[in-house]
Design brief:
The protein is mostly helical. Helix content is 75%, strand content 0%. It has one domain: MFS general substrate transporter like domains (Growth Hormone, Chain: A), CATH 1.20.1250. It has 21 helices and no strands. 58% of the residues are buried.
Length: 463
């Protein structure tokens, strides 16, 4: 016989999973996505403001940089070192204090740090501020994944992630377009790169507005023993769905669920989570090389193929349009396929288009292959963010995802320096070979060791 807490957790999970994909649920996805939009805008600044920092005489190239390497490489490395600290060390806060609270305060942290970075005038100060920005981004992105997976019913979970990343990835062409327009200029005598950075300050105006419209995760509330609060959240969701459907919801199909009031880091290393954690560590380490190696260095890769700086930013903007387009096209049918096979398919696509990109010499060919790589990277992103948030129980979901995800940030700290080295000594083909090799490892890791999760309750996947 299940205990009373187990029975209440099981009933709550079944009630969430029977919710239909109504406008109310999609609005929740959109609200969480707006928070992610702010962060990806900041995250993708790395590629697009660096030419402006070099033009302004703040960033140096090659061994003249602050740490004996190009300042762009150090800037990218500082970003991902901060992301590593935020994801690995601070993500347990979301398990302890709740998804909603951490979502809000992490937004405040990164916004203030970004504004501070925008008023600096030395490479060292900008790189230090970028590290602080990365800390806020690291914990925020993990919290959004955890939050979204727990709020959504099982039959729309991956589609919800696809739509969320459609909204979030709109930030990539936004920052590319602003950089293309502003970086070569100095409106009101202020360097264009500063305008691009400081534009994110307006995002702070949305933070409390967002917070008031988002409920706490009912699964997290139940895991804390706050069953009445969790029930109230689900009741409101059920009422909205019934109002929009104009009919009663079907009875929930209750499955067995465990109740674990507290989680510890050591729980990650118990079966079956140990195998999943090791798989995700290897996966995250190598997928980040493929994703950020191409995304953050795209203008430089285009310049390495002989494109002028102004043209490379323009071509990069066209290519970045594939970031939101990919998840948008997949939203309708993302839940029809296992996430693990979507990850494998997208990684193989990156290998194919990345190899073709290295062989191109015309703007049309570079743009076409660049769009292909970007499309596959966007597909990979929403599939694996959904996948890794499904593999652990509520009690350790944020800390486990944060710990495994942090290895993608750690790898990028070093891979940014390695890509800078490859680009300088072997050109664009050398960088693309590095990226392709990493994606082949991704394919083997997830294809060989990833469990199935499609249309399963989170509690069933966990146990």
């Amino acid at each position: 016989m299940p205990t009373e807490p187990q029975a209440r957790v099981a009933a709550l999970s079944a009630r969430i999973d029977r919710l239909p994909a109504t406008p109310s649920l999609w609005r929740l996805v959109a609200l969480l996505s707006i928070g992610g939009f702010f962060e990806l805008y900041d995250l993708f600044q790395t590629a697009y403001i660096s030419p402006g920092l070099i033009k302004a005489g703040i960033f140096a190239t090659g061994a003249q940089g602050a740490f004996g390497v190009s300042d762009q490489a150090a800037f990218a490395s500082a970003t991902f070192l901060g992301l590593f600290v935020g994801a690995s060390l601070l993500s347990p806060f979301a398990d302890r204090f709740g998804r909603r609270a951490v979502f809000t305060y992490a937004l405040i942290w990164y916004t203030l740090a970004t504004v501070l970075m925008g008023v600096q005038s030395s490479a060292m100060a900008i790189i230090l501020c970028r590290f602080l920005v990365g800390i806020g981004l690291g914990i925020e992105l993990v919290t959004i994944d955890t939050y979204l997976s727990e709020l959504m019913p099982k039959r729309m979970r991956t589609s919800a992630f696809a739509f969320a990343f459609f909204v979030q990835f709109l930030s990539v062409p936004a920052v590319a377009l602003m950089s293309w327009w502003l970086v070569p200029q100095a409106p009101l005598g202020i360097d264009g790169w500063r305008w691009v950075v400081l534009a994110s300050a307006v995002f702070a105006l949305f933070i409390w507005w967002l917070r008031k419209r988002l409920p706490e995760s009912p699964r997290w509330l139940a895991q804390q023993g706050r069953f009445d609060e969790a029930d109230a959240v689900v009741v409101r969701l059920e009422q909205r769905c019934e109002e929009e459907l104009r009919q009663r919801l079907p009875p929930p199909e209750v499955e067995h669920a465990e109740f674990e009031p507290k989680g510890r880091f050591a729980d990650i290393w118990k079966p079956p989570y140990r195998r999943r954690a090791l798989m995700l560590i290897v996966f995250n380490f190598f997928q980040a090389i493929g994703f950020f190696g191409f995304g953050n260095w795209l203008p430089a890769l285009l310049a390495g193929k002989g494109m002028e700086a102004t043209h490379s930013l323009g071509y990069a903007f066209i290519i970045t349009l594939a970031y939101p387009l990919g998840p948008l096209l997949f939203t309708r049918w993302a839940n029809r396929f296992e996430n693990k096979w979507q990850i494998v398919g997208s990684a193989i696509g990156t290998v194919i288009f990345g190899t073709l990109f290295a062989a191109q010499s015309t703007p049309t060919g570079l743009i076409a292959c660049g769009v292909g790589v970007t499309f596959c990277n966007a597909w990979l992103t929403f599939a694996y963010h959904s996948y890794q948030s499904e593999l652990f129980p509520t009690s350790i979901r944020a800390r486990a995802v944060g710990f495994c995800y942090s290895f993608s940030r750690l790898s990028t700290v070093f891979s940014s320096l390695m890509i800078g080295f490859f680009l300088e000594h072997f050109g664009t083909p050398g960088v693309l070979a590095f990226i392709v090799s990493s994606m082949l490892i991704v394919t083997l890791t997830i294809g060989g060791f990833g469990p199935r999760t499609r249309n399963l309750a989170l509690e069933r996947i966990a146990h």
